[in-house]
Structure formats: structure tokens, C-alpha cells
From TrEMBL:
The lineage of its organism: Archaea, Methanobacteriati, Methanobacteriota, Thermococci, Thermococcales. The gene is cm. It comes from Thermococcus gammatolerans (strain DSM 15229 / JCM 11827 / EJ3). PROSITE patterns: CHORISMATE_MUT_2. This is Chorismate mutase (Cm). Its EC number is 5.4.99.5. Keywords: Coiled coil, Isomerase. Residues 28-106 form the Chorismate mutase domain.
């Protein structure tokens, strides 16, 4: 994804809460690009949240089965595999695993 090419800095007036300030066309284009990218991040975040909810639901069901079988909540071997697979997102998955453990304990 590339940023817009620099433009000749023509000056525009921009109203911001009643204040009028000068903004170059280039800066305005970059701000528009930032807003477009932030909208995409919002879409991605919604999908991540949906998937996390689904993961927590599955973890909860696993917790129910473990309780019926008398198994401990923590499975260090499984957690190690998940964390290795997470790679550069290890810290994120450590947090996800903590939440999953809590859900399984309930």
C-alpha cells in the first residue's frame, strides 16, 4: 500500500470546529489516506474480535469437557505448541491463553 505522491503544495482552507486553518493539498491527501487506512483497521479489528469470541466459546467448551474428565485446565504442552506457532505474536497469544484459562476455570 503506497502513500499518495507528493503534490505541489497548493494551499487550502479547512474548517475545524469553527477555526479556519491553512492546509496544503498534500497534507490533506495524506490525512485522507490515514482515514482510509484507519477504516480498514476498524474492519480488521471487528474480524479479530469476532474470532476471539469464537475462540473463547470453544475454550469454554474444552473447559467443560476437561472438568467432566477431571483433567487440569493448564496443558503446558499444548500451550507451548500454540506459542511457538504464534511466532512474532507470542505476547498476544500469551494474553489470549490467559483469558482462555480463566474461561475454562469457570
Amino acid at each position: 500500500m503506497s502513500l499518495p505522491k507528493p503534490l505541489k503544495p497548493s494551499v487550502q482552507l479547512k474548517a475545524n470546529n469553527g477555526d479556519v486553518s491553512l492546509m496544503t493539498k498534500q497534507k490533506f491527501d495524506y490525512m485522507s489516506e490515514i482515514e482510509r487506512l484507519r477504516a480498514r483497521i476498524d474492519e480488521i479489528d471487528e474480524e479479530i474480535i469476532r474470532l476471539l469470541r469464537e475462540r473463547i466459546e470453544v475454550a469454554s467448551r474444552i473447559g467443560e469437557v476437561k472438568a467432566r474428565l477431571g483433567l487440569p485446565v493448564v496443558d503446558e504442552g499444548r500451550e507451548k505448541v500454540v506459542l511457538e506457532r504464534a511466532g512474532e505474536f507470542r505476547q498476544v497469544f500469551e494474553a489470549i491463553i490467559r483469558v482462555s484459562r480463566d474461561v475454562q476455570r469457570v
